[in-house]
Structures are given as structure tokens and as C-alpha cells.
Amino acid sequence: MTVINHGRDMVGNAELYYTTPIFVNVDSAKKLPTGCVMYYQNKDYRVPEVVKCTIAPLKRNARVEVTLPLKIYQGAPAVPTYGVAIVRSAQAHSDPERNITDNITVPGGVISLPVPPAPDYDRQVQAGPRIALAASTAIVSSKPSEAAYRVYNIGDQVAYKVRLQLITALYVNTSTAGSLPAGCSMTLKDADPAVPEIVDCEIGNLEPGKFKEFRIPVKAVPNGPRGQMHGMALVTRSAAPRDGLQDVLSAELQLTGASLGANGAQ
Predict the structure, then answer these.
(1) Secondary structure class of 221 (helix, strand, coil)
(2) pTM for the whole thing?
(3) pLDDT tier at 138 (50, 70, 90 boundaries)?
């Protein structure tokens, strides 16, 4: 990642927060760069991790490169996945930010790992449980609202141990917006707008043709960006009732949207 100061010389430090994509963790076997620490650590590959890097004051037009060691979960499906990075002044009163919107980027890519051939693949994709996710684009303001997520089993067999993970967009909080629906809990609760909040919803077994809907409360953090911001949603299922949650058979990963208007950015 490259941090560039397009404004005047900075008085204080800059802070870079990087949230890893789903199915990607920070490689704990390698050292983080000087000035970087683990802000939030979680080895569950369905849950992002967060790194915080402190950067010395930058002169006008100065830039600094930050490289973090990452590793991909070996059982990850071949899907697009996205993280998020934001840089801001550590001393907002000394180094005021005119436009936080251009301080945010959504780095990502497509996971591509060698997968051994599976027997009867054509038959497997045509029959059995198949999970699908539909997510609404929430209009988020300073007043609490809701984002809707619906998980379907569009296959012809029971989907076992279905689980929904939600990662909010930056400057969008759940913990301050209201109560979570039954079956959901906060995995990461953090009021800092540079850090996403993470919600975990246990669905259990989902019969063929059935769906489960969750309406998650959301609220914009003041002084945030305007326009479309992105979070992530992940649905996973296990192969059979006896399998552990770590033995995920299939997953659907989706980039979700949150539209922040003027009320959420003031």
C-alpha cells in the first residue's frame, strides 16, 4: 500500500488501518513492518484481521510504502475477496482532513489455489444443498436504519450448519444502532470508524427451498465519507451434521453496499 500526502506538511503522525479480506490472514510467522501492530487478531479464516500502522509525519507530496505479510486459507474457494484500508491523521486538530473519502481504498483480488479434481463433479454441482445470499444496499445516515440479508438453500438437500458473517463498511456501526436479531452476536465491536464491526449469525440447518432473513441495525458515524462504501458478507455450510465448522464444504462471498448521504458525513 502507498500512502501519499497531497496536502500541506503534516504536524503529527498518520495512522493506517488495514482490514484483511475474508479467507486471508496476517502471516504470524513473519514480522510486521516497523510501526505496525495487530489491532485485531482472529485466526478464523471467515473473520478479517486488522493491522494498525503508525507513520511518521509526511511532508507535502511525500509517500511511504507499507507491505504486510499475508497468507490465504488453503481451503478457500476460488472467489473474489476484498479488504479495506484507510489512512487518517493521528491528530485531527493539527492536521485536519478536508476529504476523508479519498483516504479509503478497497484492495482485493480473486483467490486462486490448486484444487485436486473431485469425482463426479458435474453431478455434485447439479444436486445437493446450494446456499445463496441476497443483500440489500442500505441507505445509512446518522439515524439508525437496517440492512437486510437473506440466505437461501436453492438446492435439493439440507444445508448443514449454515453461518452468516457480516463485516460493516467503514464509518458504519452496528453496535450503536440497535439490537441484533436472534441468533446473531458481535464478533468485533469497535466504535472507531476506521475499523469495521463484525456480526456472526448462526442459522443452523436450512431445508431445501427455505430461507432465513436477518435485518441488521446500522448507523453512520459522524464526519465520515459520502457516497457508496463497501462491506462484506459471507455464508458458509458444512458437509454433514458431524463435521466441525472448520470443515467448510462451500461458501458464498458477496461485496455489500452502504450508501452514506450527507447526514452520515457531517
Answers:
(1) coil
(2) 0.85
(3) low
